[in-house]
Amino acid sequence: MFKDVITDVFFDLDHTLWDFDRNSALTFKKILKENDVSVVLEDFLEVYVPINLEFWKLYREEKISKAQLRYQRLKNTFDKVGASVSDEIIHVLADDYIAHLSSFTHLFPNTVEILEYLVPNYNLHIITNGFQEIQDKKLVESNINKYFDQVINSEMAGVKKPNPYIFELALQKAKVAPKNSLMIGDNLEADIMGARAVGMESIHFNAHSEPEHDLCLMISDLIEIKSFL
């Protein structure tokens, strides 16, 4: 479908290639135990995951700072599960989370297979809203950094997806026109609508079992990309 026009493929990282939920859960298992925080991990994660998505949306919309994101998502979770955790420990956990998150390296099924398939024929890049210090480590520790020419993050761009500028910066760095570019990501607002706004093609990796839509192609397994490229 895209074979004749696409030269460059841009991927989101978290929830698209790098299995954020799985790696995040393993990180919390480690740091909650090390800091003697007495909560049931499953109960904590059940509350934390939607709260984290909510605060990331606020961060993406420039409504909260990075420091507020890191603190408030934990504070709100502990309050909701009824755990009494001091601000001092919350700040320690926030730092520990960042320090250890990238040490876990689980990828989505078929990540390496699809990158191996694409890299001989396409230029591959990353566009991520994550923090530079962590995203670079994730790529290295997961041993997939070798596949990507350009890695553009929101700290580098000064804005976050879906702001058009981060996509324009990525296109500029990759030296490619929007019509020859394909964005693959899990977030309908940030990845798909953001890419479409600057004229890029897109594929929605449906990592969260979202309802079907007709904005672009949807896939549930990365290996399906082979059908289109």
From TrEMBL:
It comes from the Bacteria. Pfam families: Hydrolase. InterPro entries: HAD-like_sf, HAD-SF_hydro_IA, HAD-SF_hydro_IA_YjjG/PynA, HAD_sf, PGP-like_dom2, Pyrimidine_5'-ntase_YjjG. SUPFAM superfamilies: HAD-like (SSF56784). Gene3D superfamilies: HAD superfamily/HAD-like, Putative phosphatase, domain 2. GO terms for molecular function: 5'-nucleotidase activity. NCBIfam families: HAD-SF-IA-v1, YjjG_YfnB. This is Haloacid dehalogenase.
